[in-house]
Specification:
five-stranded mixed sheet; 12 helices; D-Maltodextrin-Binding Protein, domain 2; 14 strands; transcription; 44% helix; DNA-binding transcription factor activity; alpha/beta; Arc Repressor Mutant, subunit A; 301 residues; LysR family transcriptional regulator; sequence-specific DNA binding; WH-like_DNA-bd_sf; 3 domains; three-stranded antiparallel sheet
Length: 301
Amino acid sequence: MKHWEAMEAFVEVVHQGSFSKAASRLNVSASHISRLITHLEERLNTTLLFRTTRSIRLSEAGEKFYQHCRELPNALASAEEAVSALTQAPMGTLRITCATTFGERYLAPLLNDFLMQNPQVDLDFHLTNREVDLVEEGYDLAIRMGALRDSSLLSRRLCDRAEYLCASREYVDQHGVPHTLAELSKHKCLMGSKTHWVFSQNGQRKEVKVSSHWRSNSGPALLDAIRRGLGIAQLPDYYVKEDLTSGRLISLLPQYQYPYTGVWLVYPRAQQPSPKLKAVCDYLIERFEKEDIFASWSKRL
């Protein structure tokens, strides 16, 4: 057990990047973590971590040891959950990550509802527009948009998603509309966190890079810029649906619109789906299937 505890501490220190953060995650003192790793290094007769007052760095031996140990905590948790999954109620901490605006608007209320029905589940809900490494950073679940690239992850479809190229009526009156993808270069383009826009041309996915005088990783900020007539931009339907219906914004190049992609629940392939993970995935999918979640949020404004 001492050997296992030391390896768990070592992996957590590498994950967190500090002894104090690892100690907080494992509910022990930083001095206890330090002693465990010192004993581990003594047993292995090598240095695993180079320590300074501000940072830690893996030695060559530490890097090799980490590569072999990194999956052990997940493997142990999966083994225990596999045995008890048939009878165990959802419990424990769920670590979930999602894009900021989608998470704030649509996921947070649903997750709060889920917690009210499952009081033995705790939530660590991290909102970021960065694509998180689920295994490396210890997350149970991510909500991701569009085409999925990482085949090492499992996924379940949460809902449909389409992107619209839009402009305000004021912009169109002043600058006209593009009729082809090539004409986008003549327009003022506003960019979000992506480096390109996605279209469909001759039945094939086509990525178009455009020059931009305006860029932000915030969807609401991008929507505001479109509404004010600063240029044209591509945004998901849940941002612009109401503005398109009311006529405040105009859809451009609809003949090139890429078909529905999706919003996905994504989780590590190596992990035995725990009762808490299965329960929250089932709950979110059921809510999105039964309700117009996007419309429900708009009514709360």
